[in-house]
Write a structure and sequence with these properties.
Layout (H helix, E strand, L loop, with lengths): L1 H27 L5 H16 L22 H4 L13 H4 L6 E5 L2 E6 L2 H4 L4 E4 H7 L1 H11 L7 H9 L2 E7 L9 E7 L5 E10 L4 E10 L7 E10 L4 E9 L5 E10 L4 E8 L4 E10 L5 E10 L4 E10 L5 E10 L4 E10 L7 E10 L5 E10 L5 E10 L2 H9 L4 H17 L5 H15 L14 H5 L10
Parallel strand pairs: 1-5, 4-6, 5-7, 6-8, 7-9, 8-10, 9-11, 10-12, 11-13, 12-14, 13-15, 14-16, 15-17, 16-18, 17-19
Antiparallel strand pairs: 1-2, 3-4
Helix pairs in contact: 1-2, 2-8, 6-7, 9-10, 10-11
Protein name: Fe-S cluster assembly protein SufB
GO biological process, one term: iron-sulfur cluster assembly
Pfam families: SUFBD_core
């Protein structure tokens, strides 16, 4: 009886909390369908009730962003009219790439080249997609918020979503240029929570680049991110996220890739800025013969704290999955790489690989790598590797003995450590943009080390790919 009374009391508290959150969220996000208001309230309740890390494997190794919870809802207000900062205006003039630009949570520019409009590609603000594709969006939201992949920060983004886009690439359409979604945080104490849904229909081929930039003076801002990728049967989808926030900003990100029969997905994530960053990637190979290639790069300095979890879920027959994560930390920075390969009972003939490697450049920097396996069948190949090492003194001595100053030698070794992963990215815009950010964060660029025919960094990016923050 005591247990029943305790449960009933908890339910009363839960319902009261849900009602309170529903009232607050309804005032902030007016005009939305009732089901969405209730989903927001339930998601906020789940956010407050869940711990930062639920896996028993990682209870001692995680970073928990310190968020201003009492004012988060107020911080989601986009404010008055927003203007595109000067360094990013060239993106709005681009007539070759489908492009969406957010300043804070305000969508200030969205465009599709005319030739792609005629081919029925969709790049819609999330609010418009909700009206046009409400049954699909509703089912997706409910499935995501009830899945085993949902964590504390999944619920936070779904509770407070105030930005985002819906992308659909029609059947058999093969895009030669990437779609760009750019976020610029230019105001202090602002919270942006973006939801992106991307669907490649059967036979379609597409690339998507999401960029998150923070400008000087926009401290104490929060960027939350949930991207859901649907690669339907026999399609190919490449998705990259480049995070270039300031050291005074917080970043939480969840990326989910659902890959269908015979389809492939490449997922690239780079964490360059931010004070505290918590990232989770779940790649699910549902379809027989599907494949995922996940590349993660982290560069931390000063007192940055970066927590990246990359999981592979093998469900279909004959699937192939790979995660390769590399990180460099210096000064007092800390990085954590985690990940699990899960192979279900029916997923025979699977090949899976998970590698996590970190280099420590300073005595006070810290790095951890924790890969693991959960295999529920036979006839599979699954391996993992992990290493955390300090900079090789012999390599450093070799370079210095040939007249290279110590700081330049350290920089060369760090960038060389990243390069095997960077060179695997087969999209020029992402590969060169990432090199530029990594080099400029260290202080100055020498891209001639990675010179490729007919490639120039400035022609690809204009002026906005720069790391703006020192220690």
């Amino acid at each position: 009886m005591a247990a029943i009374e305790l449960i009933e009391r908890w339910l009363r508290v839960f319902v009261q909390g849900l009602s309170g959150h529903l009232s607050i969220l309804s005032r902030r996000f007016r005009g939305e369908p009732e089901w969405l208001s209730r989903l927001r309230a339930r998601s906020l309740e789940m956010y407050f009730s869940l711990p930062p890390e639920v896996s028993e494997l990682y209870v001692r190794h995680y970073e928990a962003p310190s968020l201003p919870e009492e004012s988060l809802i107020e911080m989601t207000d986009p404010g008055d009219q927003r203007q595109i900062p000067a360094d990013f205006r060239h993106l709005a003039e681009d007539t070759e790439h489908p492009t969406a630009i957010f300043v804070g949570s305000k969508l200030v520019h969205i465009s599709i080249p005319r030739n792609l409009e005629a081919q029925q590609i969709e790049l819609l603000p999330l609010a418009e997609a909700l009206k046009k594709h409400e049954p699909f969006i509703r089912e997706l939201y409910q499935r995501v918020t009830n899945s085993s992949y949902a964590d504390k920060y999944t619920y936070l983004v779904h509770a407070l979503t105030n930005a985002g886009v819906f992308l659909r690439i029609p059947k058999n359409l093969q895009l030669s240029r990437p779609i760009r979604v750019v976020y610029v945080l230019d105001k202090p104490r602002e919270a942006v929570f973006s939801k992106v849904v991307a669907v490649t229909e059967p036979g379609a081929v597409a690339s998507i680049i999401e960029e998150v930039h923070g400008l000087p003076g926009a401290d104490e801002s929060v960027f939350g991110h949930h991207t859901h990728l649907y690669s339907l049967d026999d399609s190919s989808l490449k998705h990259s996220t480049l995070q270039n926030l300031s050291h005074g900003q917080t970043y939480v990100s969840n990326r989910v890739a659902d890959v269908g029969r015979g389809s492939s997905a490449m997922v690239v994530g780079a964490v360059i800025g931010g004070q505290v960053s918590k990232v989770r990637v779940d790649s699910s190979m549902h379809g027989d013969g599907s494949s995922v290639n996940d590349l993660e790069i982290v560069f931390g300095d000063a007192e940055q704290r970066i927590d990246v979890t990359a999981n592979l879920h093998h469900i279909g027959f004959g699937t192939q999955g790979r995660v390769l994560a590399k990180g460099v930390v210096k000064d007092k920075a800390k990085s954590i790489f985690k990940g699990v390969i899960t192979i279900e009972k029916q997923a025979k003939n699977t090949s899976a690989y998970l590698a996590e490697h970190a280099m420590i450049m300073s005595p006070e920097a810290r790095a951890y790598a924790i890969p693991s396996l959960e295999i529920m069948t036979d006839e599979v190949k699954a391996t993992h590797s992990a290493s955390v090492s300090q900079i090789d003194p012999e390599q450093l001595y070799y370079l210095m003995a040939r007249g290279i100053p110590e700081q330049e030698a350290r920089k060369m070794l760090a960038l060389g450590f990243f390069e095997p992963v960077v060179s695997m990215i087969d999209l020029n815009e992402v590969r060169w943009g990432l090199r530029t950010l990594l080099e400029s964060k260290w202080g100055g660029a020498f891209t001639e080390l990675f010179e490729e025919p007919e490639v120039t960094v400035t022609s690809l990016f204009g002026t906005h790919y720069k790391y703006r923050y020192g220690k």
